[in-house]
Specification:
The structure holds two protein chains of two kinds. Chain A is 31% helix and 29% strand. Chain A has ten helices and 13 strands. By secondary structure, chain B is mainly alpha-helical. The radius of gyration of chain B is 23 Å and the shape is globular. Classes of the chains: A alpha/beta, B mainly alpha. At the A-B interface, helix 2 and helix 3 of A face helix 13 and helix 17 of B.
C-alpha cells in the first residue's frame, strides 16, 4: 500500500529565505502522525506544498503516490484539511460552510455532521464573521471530521479550543483512526501528541531532525538520574554524554545519554552509591532536546 | 508627537508606498493632462470660441463636466474640463484610502493589534485622515503648480488645487464616518461611494437644467462654484472645510463611542443551519457572495439610467448647433436624442465597469485573506476557482448591471412617451459589454501575473475615462483613442452596431483570460 504522504529531500525557498531544506516526512496509512517543531520550522509550508498551494523547488513530494501540484483536485477528494488560522466566508453561516466544504470535497452527505455539531457545541446559524477563533476552528473541524476521506491534515487545529473541546477533539481523532483514517497532526500541545500519535516527525529550520515512535525518540534522549552517595563522585561532568551535573551534599543529579550510562554507573559505584533513581526522558525533554540549539542534541 | 503616534504614522504612510503615488497621479494627473491638451490644442482664441459655441449646448457635457463659463478663455476652458471630474477623482481616492486605513484594518483584526498598544481609540482614524489630507493637499499643490507652469493665472490655479483637494479630504472624512456605521470594508466603500455618486448625480441634474437649489446641497456643486479663473470665489471652499470638520468631528465621536469591530447600523442576523441545494461548488459560492454586489450596482445604475432618460427627453433643447454636438447630430441622422444617448451610454458603461473590476479583484482579496486557500484545499480545480467562477460571475454580472441601466432608461423614456428611443438606449448600453469584459480580463491578468499591482485595473478604467473626455477636444488620431475599448466600440445609437470591433474585443478578452489563467495556475499562492 502506498504511503498517504511520502516526502523526501523537500526544498522550498521564498526569495533568499530557505523555508524547507531537505525535509523528510513519511506518513503510513492508518496512523496518526505527529508533526512537531518550533514556530517557523516549516510545518505549515510543508502542508501548503502537500496541498498544491505552493510548488516545491526540489525533492520528492508524493500525496497518495501522486503529484500534489498537478493532481490537486483529484487528490483533494481523498483528504480534508483544517488550517491553523481558519478563515470563513463572512457571508455564510457555519452550517452552510460545513455543507459547502463537504460538497466541494465531493461529499454530498456528511453522515456525522449533526452529531459532531452537537459534540462540539457549535451554533451552525452564526455568520462566518461573527465566530470567535475557537468557533471558526470548530466549523472547520466538523467539516473535516464529518467527511469520509482517507486522510486528515490538521494544522494546529486546537490552538483556539478550550480544554473540554480539546477532549472532544482527541476522542474524534481516536475514532477517525479506528475508522482507518490517516491523520497528519501538527501540534504544540504535548499531551495531545502523546495521547494520539503513533509516530512523530520533529522538524527544525526546514529539516526533519527526529522521526519515529515516541519510544524510539525517547531512546537517544538523555535520561535523568538521581543518586545518594556516601563517598565522592569525581569526574562525572567530564564523561562525554552527561549534562546538568549537580552535586549538593550527598545528592547527585544529572542527565545521561544512553551511551554514557555504563561509565556513569561505574563512577557512582566507586562513590558508594546508596540510592539510585532513573527516569526515562519525558516527551517534553525529547522536544526540548530536538528544538534547542544543535549542540544540545 | 508622541512616539506611539509617530509609529502609527510610519505604519500608515509605509502601507501606501504604492497607492500614495497612484492617488497623487489620479488627483493631479487627469487635470494636468487635460490642461496640457487644451494649452496646445486650443492655443488660438478662434479655436476656443468655436468650441465654446458648441459646448454650451451639449447636455452630456453639461451633466458630466458642469456649467461652461468663459470658454474662450484658456483658464475658463481648463476649469470647465477639469474641476468637476478632478474633484470627483479626488473624492474617490480619498474615500478608498480612508476605508483602507480604517474599516478594512478593523475588519482584518490588525486594528486590534494597534489598539492593544498605547494607542488611543481614535488615533488610527485621526492619523489616517491626516495622512490622506496631506496626500490630497500634495495632489492639489502639484495640480496648481502644473497649471501655473502652463501659464495660467496663479489665483485660479491655487483655487482649483484647493477645491480639488478639499473635496478629496471631505470624502475621506465621509468614508471614515461610513466606517463607523457598517462593519465591513466593502459596505463602507459602498456607503461612501453612494454618497459620492449622489453628490455627482445631484449636480449633474442641476447642470443639465434641473433646479438650481440642488447645487447647494452637493459638495461637488460647491467645488464648481469656486469657479477658478472666472469668478475666483474662495467662499465655497469655506463650506467644504466646514463640512469636513463637522463630518470628522461626528466620525471621531462615534469611533470613540462604539465597540471595536462593530458597526453602529450592522446587526448580525442568524443564517440557515444548513446549505441550500444551490450552494455547491465554486460557482454557487461565488454567485452567493456576489449577488448583493450585483443588486447594489444594478440599483445604482438603474437610477443613473433613469436620470439619463429624464435628461434625454429634453435633448432637443440641449444640443447646440455646430461643433461636437453638431458632429454627433450629423452622425445620428439629425436625431438629437440618439446623439445624446450615444455619449451618455459610454459614460454609463464606464460606471458599470466599476462593478466588473470590483468583482474580479475580489479574487485577490480572497487570496490575501486565506479564503482562496480554503477553496483550493478541496477538490476544486484552480482554473474553476480562479477564473471559472470569478470570471463567469463578473462577466454575467456586468451584463446584468448594464441591463439595469438600460432598463432604467427605457422605463423613463417609455413613461414620457418615447419607447423607441428607450429601446435605442437599452441596446446602446448593452453594446458596450465587450469593453467591460476586456478591462475585467486585464484585471484578471494583473491578479495572475502581478498580484501586488492588481489595483492598477482601476487606473486603466480611469485612463479610459480621461481619454474619452480628452478625445473630442484634441481630435486624437483613432489609433490613440482606440486604445480604450470604449473608444474602439462604435457609439450606438448614433453609429451602427460594429460587429468587427465587438468580435475583436471578445477575442481579446479570450486571449487575455487565457494568459491570466496560465499565470494564475503557475504561481504560488500567497
Amino acid at each position: 500500500m502506498v504511503d498517504p504522504i511520502d516526502v523526501s529531500g523537500l526544498t522550498k525557498a521564498f526569495g533568499a529565505t530557505r523555508a524547507l531544506d531537505g525535509l523528510e516526512l513519511h506518513v503510513r496509512a492508518g496512523e496518526v502522525h505527529g508533526f512537531l517543531g518550533p514556530n517557523g520550522a516549516g510545518k505549515s509550508t510543508t502542508i501548503r506544498v502537500l496541498l498544491g498551494l505552493l510548488r516545491h523547488d526540489g525533492g520528492r513530494t508524493l500525496l497518495f503516490g501522486g503529484d500534489p501540484w498537478r493532481q490537486a483536485p483529484e487528490l483533494h477528494r481523498r483528504l480534508a484539511y483544517v488550517a491553523g488560522d481558519v478563515v470563513l466566508w463572512p457571508e455564510l453561516s457555519g452550517g452552510e460552510t460545513i455543507d459547502l466544504l463537504g460538497r466541494m470535497r465531493g461529499q454530498d452527505v456528511l453522515a456525522r455532521r449533526d452529531e459532531l455539531i452537537e459534540r462540539f457545541q457549535l451554533d451552525p446559524t452564526k455568520r462566518g464573521k461573527a465566530y470567535s477563533k475557537g468557533n471558526r476552528q470548530k466549523v472547520a473541524l466538523v467539516a473535516a471530521l464529518a467527511a469520509d476521506v482517507e486522510l486528515l491534515i490538521l494544522d494546529e487545529p486546537t490552538s483556539g479550543l478550550d480544554p473540554l473541546m480539546e477532549d472532544v477533539f482527541q476522542q474524534c481523532v481516536g475514532e477517525a483512526r479506528d475508522r482507518g483514517q490517516t491523520v497528519l497532526l501538527s501540534s504544540h500541545i504535548l499531551g495531545e501528541v502523546e495521547r494520539l500519535c503513533d509516530r512523530l516527525s520533529i522538524v527544525r529550520d526546514g529539516r526533519t531532525v527526529r522521526t519515529g515512535t515516541l519510544d524510539e525518540l525517547r531512546t537517544g534522549t538523555a535520561m535523568r538520574i538521581r543518586a545518594r552517595i556516601a563517598g565522592r563522585a569525581v569526574g562525572l561532568d567530564r564523561i562525554a554524554g552527561t549534562d546538568e551535573v549537580k552535586i549538593s551534599g550527598d545528592e547527585v543529579t544529572l542527565a545521561v545519554q544512553p551511551g554514557a550510562l555504563g561509565e556513569v554507573l561505574e563512577v557512582l559505584r566507586r562513590a558508594e552509591v546508596q540510592e539510585l533513581e532513573s527516569s526515562p526522558p519525558s516527551l517534553e525533554e525529547v522536544f526540548r532536546s530536538s528544538y534547542g540549539p544543535a549542540s544540545r542534541r | 508627537m508622541s512616539s506611539t503616534v509617530r509609529a502609527l504614522v510610519r505604519v500608515t504612510v509605509g502601507r501606501d508606498r504604492v497607492l500614495g503615488p497612484v492617488a497623487l497621479y489620479v488627483v493631479a494627473g487627469y487635470t494636468l493632462a487635460q490642461a496640457a491638451a487644451i494649452h496646445w490644442g486650443y492655443a488660438s482664441p478662434e479655436d476656443r470660441h468655436g468650441l465654446a459655441r458648441t459646448a454650451q449646448g451639449n447636455a452630456t457635457y453639461a451633466a458630466l463636466l458642469g456649467p461652461a463659463r468663459a470658454l474662450d478663455d484658456l483658464g475658463g476652458l481648463t476649469a470647465w474640463r477639469t474641476v468637476v471630474v478632478g474633484a470627483t477623482f479626488a473624492g474617490l481616492t480619498g474615500l478608498l484610502l480612508a476605508v483602507r486605513h480604517t474599516r478594512a484594518e478593523e475588519e482584518l483584526g490588525r486594528g486590534e493589534l494597534l489598539l492593544a498598544g498605547a494607542v488611543g481609540r481614535r488615533a488610527p482614524a485621526g492619523v489616517a485622515l491626516g495622512w490622506i489630507a496631506a496626500l490630497q493637499v500634495a495632489g492639489g499643490a502639484v495640480l496648481a503648480i502644473g497649471l501655473m507652469a502652463l501659464g495660467l493665472p496663479v489665483v485660479g490655479a491655487v483655487l482649483q488645487g484647493a477645491a480639488v483637494a478639499a473635496v478629496g479630504v471631505l470624502f475621506a472624512a465621509v468614508a471614515v464616518l461610513a466606517s463607523q456605521l457598517v462593519a465591513t470594508a466593502r459596505a463602507a466603500r459602498a456607503v461612501a461611494g453612494v454618497a459620492l455618486g449622489t453628490a455627482f448625480l445631484l449636480r449633474a441634474v442641476t447642470d443639465a437644467g434641473g433646479p438650481d437649489a440642488f447645487r447647494w446641497v452637493t459638495p461637488l456643486g460647491w467645488a464648481e462654484e469656486v469657479a477658478p479663473f472666472t469668478a475666483n470665489d474662495p467662499a465655497p471652499l469655506l463650506l467644504l472645510v466646514a463640512a469636513t470638520m463637522v463630518v470628522v468631528a461626528v466620525a471621531l465621536r462615534l469611533q470613540g463611542a462604539r465597540d471595536h469591530g462593530t458597526g453602529l447600523l450592522t446587526r448580525t442576523t442568524p443564517g440557515p443551519d444548513r446549505a441550500s441545494a444551490r450552494l455547491r461548488g465554486v460557482y454557487g459560492l461565488t454567485i452567493r457572495r456576489q449577488r448583493s454586489a450585483v443588486a447594489g450596482w444594478g440599483a445604482g445604475l438603474f437610477a443613473v439610467g433613469a436620470a439619463v432618460g429624464a435628461v434625454a427627453t429634453s435633448a432637443d433643447d440641449l444640443l447646440g448647433d455646430g461643433g461636437t454636438g453638431a458632429k454627433l447630430l450629423d452622425r445620428a441622422g439629425g436625431d438629437p436624442v440618439d446623439a445624446f444617448l450615444s455619449s451618455t451610454s459610454t459614460v454609463v458603461a464606464m460606471l458599470a465597469c466599476g462593478f466588473t473590476l470590483q468583482a474580479l479583484l475580489r479574487l485577490r482579496r480572497d487570496e490575501v485573506s486565506g479564503l482562496l486557500e480554503a477553496t483550493l484545499a478541496t477538490a476544486t480545480r484552480r482554473r474553476q476557482t480562479l477564473l471559472g467562477a470569478h470570471v463567469v460571475v463578473a462577466g454575467i454580472g456586468s451584463v446584468v448591471v448594464l441591463l439595469c441601466a438600460g432598463v432604467g432608461l427605457l422605463v423613463v423614456l417609455t413613461l414620457s412617451g418615447d419607447p423607441g428611443h428607450g429601446v435605442d438606449g437599452l441596446l446602446a448600453t448593452l453594446s458596450r459589454t465587450p469593453a467591460l469584459w476586456v478591462l475585467g480580463a486585464v484585471s484578471a491578468l494583473l491578479v495572475g501575473a502581478a498580484p501586488r499591482a492588481s489595483a492598477l485595473g482601476w487606473a486603466a478604467l480611469a485612463s479610459c475615462l480621461a481619454l474619452w473626455i480628452i478625445d473630442p477636444l484634441l481630435g486624437l488620431p483613432t489609433a490613440v483613442s482606440d486604445v480604450s475599448p470604449f473608444g474602439l466600440l462604435p457609439d450606438l445609437p448614433a453609429a451602427p452596431f460594429g460587429a468587427v470591433a465587438t468580435a475583436a474585443l471578445i477575442a481579446a478578452t479570450a486571449v487575455v483570460l487565457a494568459l491570466a489563467d496560465a499565470a494564475l495556475r503557475r504561481r504560488d499562492l500567497t
